Amino acid sequence: MSQRTLVLLKPDAVKRGLVGTILSRYETKGLSVVAMELRSIDEQQADAHYAEHVEQPWYPPLRAFSTSGPLVALVLEGDEAITVVRGLNGATDGRAAAPGTIRGDLSLSNRENLVHASDSPESAAREITLWFPGL
C-alpha cells in the first residue's frame, strides 16, 4: 500500500552535513521524494508540530533544539512508507538504536537524534498538512 510520510532532517543533521547521506538511505530503499524544503522554524511552528508533547517537562529543550538552526522537511512516498521510514530511522535514542539504522550509525543522543518521522497514518496526514499545506 503506497503511503506518504513526513520526515524532518533535524538541525543536527543539517549542521553535520548528513542530509545527502540520510536522504540516500531513504531513496536506496525505494522511497520517492514528493516534496522537500530547507527551512528554519520558530517556536510556534515547533509547538504546532509537537502539539502532543508541549506540556511534557522535557519539551522546552526539544523546542530549543528544533528552532536552533535550519532543518530539511520532506514528504516521502512508497509502499508502507511510515513503517519503512521508522525502521530505517531506528530507536529514538541514538545510543540504543541498532547498527544499520540512521540513528544507530550516526546519532549519539536522544534529543539530537537527526530525524523525525510520522508514527501513524493520522500523524502523517496532520504533519504533511502542517508542513506542506499544498499537498
Keywords:
135 residues, alpha+beta, Alpha-Beta Plaits, 7 helices, 41% helix, 21% strand
Structure description:
The protein is α+β, with helices and mostly antiparallel strands. The chain contains 7 helices and 4 strands.
Give the mean pLDDT: 96
Helix/strand order, N-terminal first = EHHEHHEHHEH
Query: At the first level of CATH, what is the class?
Result: Alpha Beta
Low-confidence stretches: none
Secondary structure: number of strands? 4
CATH H level, superfamily name: Nucleoside diphosphate kinase-like domain
Q: Which topology does CATH recognise? A: Alpha-Beta Plaits
Count up the helices. Answer: 7
Name the overall outline.
globular
CATH A-level architecture: 2-Layer Sandwich
Structural class: alpha+beta
Number of domains: 1
**What is the terminal separation in angstroms?**
19 Å
Task: Give a short synopsis of this structure.
41% of the residues lie in helices and 21% in strands.
Helices, strands, pairings?
Elements: E1 2-9, H1 11-15, H2 19-28, E2 32-39, H3 43-49, H4 59-66, E3 71-79, H5 81-89, H6 102-106, E4 115-117, H7 121-131
Antiparallel strand pairs: 1-3, 1-4, 2-3
